[in-house]
Amino acid sequence: MFITFGSMKSVTERYNKAKEEHQQLANPASEAKLWQREVAILRQQLQNLQESHRKMMGEELSGLSIKELQNLENQLETSLRGIHVRKDQLLFDEIHDLNRKGTLIHQENAELYKKVDLLIQENQELNKKIYGTKDANGAPSNGFLANGISIGDDPSAPVRLQLCQPQQEKDETGPGATSLGRLQLC
After folding, report:
1. Residue 134: left (phi > 0), alpha (psi -120 to 50), or beta?
2. pLDDT confidence of residue 17
3. How does 55-91 read in b/e, with b if 16+ C-beta sit within 10 Å?
4. Coil, helix or strand for 174?
5. What is d(CA 36, CA 30) in angstroms, rounded to the nearest whole number?
6. 173: which strand partners?
7. Residues of the chain with pLDDT under 50
């Protein structure tokens, strides 16, 4: 037995009815008796609920007959079926929600792949504009930077520079002086 809204409503209705009957007398002693009866009824309901709870938990079953035990078992099976139905519904709803989220993530992923492909194409076009295109022989047609330095076939490869030993040049500062102020590439 569980206290429900209906049983609370019946308690208040009984109180209101008894109060109306005793209101004519307006005697504080009769109102105290009314409250004492209500307290006794509520205590009995609490004891019944506690006893029912202990039985549902499998405690204090020794005084029950076979029929009472079968009734208790039926109540527990009914409760368990209700629990399974609710749990299954929650799991179904969660799976449905996860599938929906997975579909959204898959769509976002596809959109991001499209954006990456677009960026790669733009990058390739920029590389063509900067480094030029290869001619029929495979040599870069516009692959030279200032001073005749070639960047090579792969525009993303680093340019390797190598310094040579300075050559003896005649400078205005004097005969046999070495020019250190100029970079020479080999």
Report:
1. beta
2. 76
3. beeeeeeeeeeeeeeeebeeeeeeeeeeeeeeeeeee
4. strand
5. 10
6. none
7. 1-3, 135-136, 141-151, 176-181, 183, 185
